[in-house]
Amino acid sequence: MMSHSADTHNAERVSLVTQSLSRLAWSMILAMALAVWISFAAVGLRVDFASNWPLVAVMLIYAVALLFYLHVRRDRRIADMLVVVAQLFLTLLLGLLLTYAASAVALPYRDAELSAIDLWLGCHRAAYVNAINSTPGLNGVLDAAYLSIQPQTALVPLALLLAGQLPRLQSFVLALGISLTATVLIAVLFRPSMPQSTSTSHRGARPR
To answer: What number of CA atoms fall less than 13 Å from residue 43's CA on the CB side?
Structure first.
């Protein structure tokens, strides 16, 4: 009896934490959407929903399913799972749209300042490239580690979802949104002339 009461209390506590984090996530998503709207208006971009009707249709069907489990069937656990997955999708979508706005901003390149920061930190490009090239296979390992960001973004939420760790998944969504926004701001303010697409290629390192 006591064990059942403790389990019920723990489930209620987890639900309250999840709902609190969910409100924070929705606030962050709203702020990101507002930033997208303002930035797109400023640089003259727009989202063509007509050419993306399959995505819009999927989003509408998903919203109907969420409302069904939230208000008709009243299964809070499934509803919370659907909410956090939607928040993850919206965070990634808005982060992507912010990168489009950032790439359209015509601010001057900051190569000289970035190079000065590297030198101030004691990072010399030539020495860095030589160190990478002098170690067989290191360039490939670093590139693989960098490119693992994309599968990690999918695998970590999937693992948390399957484990039923909704509060941790909510925290992941918040951290992802904050990091995406910070990355966009840094890309705008400290714009390099060459895209940093991989861990070492933007610094001139190539495997021998």
So the answer is: 20
Number of domains in the chain: 1
Please indicate, yes or no, if residue 208 is contained in any of the structural domains.
Answer: no
Span 181-207, mean pLDDT?
A: 63
Residue 192 within any structural domain of the chain? yes
Give the structural domain span for 116. 2-203
Q: How far is CA 29 from CA 7, 81, 90, in A?
A: 32, 17, 7
User: What distance lies between CA 205 and its chain's CA centroid?
Assistant: 27
Other residues' Cβ atoms within 10 Å of the Cβ of residue 77: 14
- How far is residue 133 CA from its own chain's centroid? 31
pLDDT digits (tens, 9 = 90+) for 149-164: 888 888 999 999 888 8
Tokens 């039923």 -> residue: 164
**pLDDT tens-digit map of 30-77:** 999 999 999 999 888 888 877 888 888 888 999 899 889 888 888 878
